[in-house]
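User: Assemble these into one structure.

Assistant: Restating your components, then the assembled model:
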Amino acid sequence: MMRREVLTGWGRYPSKPCLVTAPRTESEVSTLARHGGVIARGNGRAYGDSALGGAATLDMRRMNRILSFDPATGVLVAEAGLLLADIITTFLPRGWFPYVTPGTKFVSLGGAIASDVHGKNHHCDGAFGSFVEWVDLVGADGKMRRLSRSDNDPLFEWTLGGMGLTGVILRAAIRLRPVESGWIRQRTIVAPNLRAAMAGFEEAQDATYSVAWIDCLATGCALGRSLIMLGEHARVEEVPDAFRASPLSTPTKKKRTVPFDAPALALNRYSVKAFNALYWRKGQGGPEEVLIDWDSYFYPLDAILGWNRIYGRRGFVQFQCALPLDRAEAGLIALLTATARAGQGSFLAVLKRFGAQDSRFSFPMEGFTLALDFPANPKTFALLDQLDRITLAHGGRFYLAKDARLSASTFHEADPRAAQYRDLRRGAGLDHAFASAQSQRLLL
Amino acid sequence: MTTVTFPPVLVIGARSDIGRAVAHRFAAAGHAVILAARRASELEQDRADISLRHGVEATLVEFDVLDTGGMADFVAQISPEPQIVVSVVGAMGDQAESESSPAAAALIMRTNYEGPALILGLFAERMAKAGTGTIVGVSSVAGDRGRASNYIYGSAKAGFTAFLSGLRNRLADKGVHVLTVKPGFVRTKMTEGMDLPKRLTAAPEEVADAIYAAVGKRHNAIYVRPIWALVMAVIRSIPEPIFKKTQL
């Protein structure tokens, strides 16, 4: 039975009344896939309207069974609604961790595949899709097909990063990474400006994990000042004495919850600037290398449940683009200058070096990616249009898992693969079968 | 070193969202679980999930709550012998249909009262002989007072609640603990599409947590969300001349 529900993404903008149903079995998914205009939704962590169904939304969270695990190869088979958090809870104690994880562990397996999410190790390991062995996909005819990496099936390749628009991902086999401990050795590099930050990433190409927090309100010669955080999985002998007996378990932290929507004014240019300046100063003083638990390293924001409420009732929007290596510096300078000038400081701004990735429709490309978030208001939208143009002018493209408001023309101009994807979908009748508010907006 | 072994738990009605959550909850604490349902073989993926996730033994067993004739054999043959038996069997049915169709009404009465009461009664007999064990019956707030909108279902649940109460009374000094659970609204397949008030509606996992905790503390009867105790106290206290004119 379908229920009516007003859905949003994690950014709480935009919202849309949707027909939602939560299938429990393969046969239910099969029936629903023939409904037309459906999209599968995982844990709703895409920021915009990627998982707001065109006609109906399949809430896949009840399909979260772990089906098999092979400790010899690290291959896990599970249903699409399983959360990365559950994978970690279950398999970290046995010495395994997801190969690729985004900045929240509350994403579903299906969502991670559909968005081909990336992590702090993209420069050396690639995106989530690199570790997907096969996917069981329910097509427009309601039939399930197993698409394998080894078969070189184009549909498999389009499904990685395909935003759920090739069909409903039912289950998948992914490879996990063997780890000796639940601890990360973190090293922080202080970069006083953008050029230093970019050089810092190049010097750190051997680090397993690298990501930079960037002060997007700094201007002049401090433009782009950053704290680059590098990480390595700690070996058993590197774990603190007190925890070495059971290196795979780390102390559990108290979760905090944002209990109410912050007033729209709480995050303004002054408070954000003060926060950024404070964070910057804090980064200078500390020891160069520290050992921290996996949860604090990968998921600092997960410790504050419902942190999306700090932007107030109107919600917020993310901007994330990737710029090709040769034009990244000029592009980043232009993006940061425009952001600082607008005074629309982003609370969290993240810079990351991407490695090479050649895929059908995934977001990453060799170069740099910049992610910013802003409260959803008219001033922001004007700034975002400007950032779109800068991205286009520097040969960049946009991350659909973050997008809530790109125009179709901008999107297609930035990414010629979009037209190929649209044609493929039309040719196979997938455009009527699978649609999200986002795919309709972007004419996919 | 001593090894602690946790007694096996039988979940009757394991296909339901609450049943699945209860099985996971006990398995997470280290109990072996037995999943009983009709067409049990279809639950193989749930079985694998529980076993892999929690590292416990999980088994499937075929069970039909309407097959009262087969119940004695079911209880005699089940292995491993469960020390905790949880029945989450239930079906809401369609009130309007039940009003005019005795067959439909009988099905709801049998599914919510006759079947669960008889099977739990048989397990209770065995536990009484052994002098130990726990019986958990998931009843409903709908059984606290008959209302126009669901009194066929509600009356069956009322019967089940009374049965559990009597069983508890009888076995109190025989080492057998009987727990009655009234979940209130729960976000499950059964209620999908209904417009349920958030504060009064629990997730299946919340119900499972409450059951697990109540078994440990040997509580007698619980509402999953405490607010339901208040809501039902008010509903029960309304005098009949007024109550009969309300639409609740």
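The domain at 183-406 of chain A is CATH 3.30.70.2520 (Alpha-Beta Plaits).
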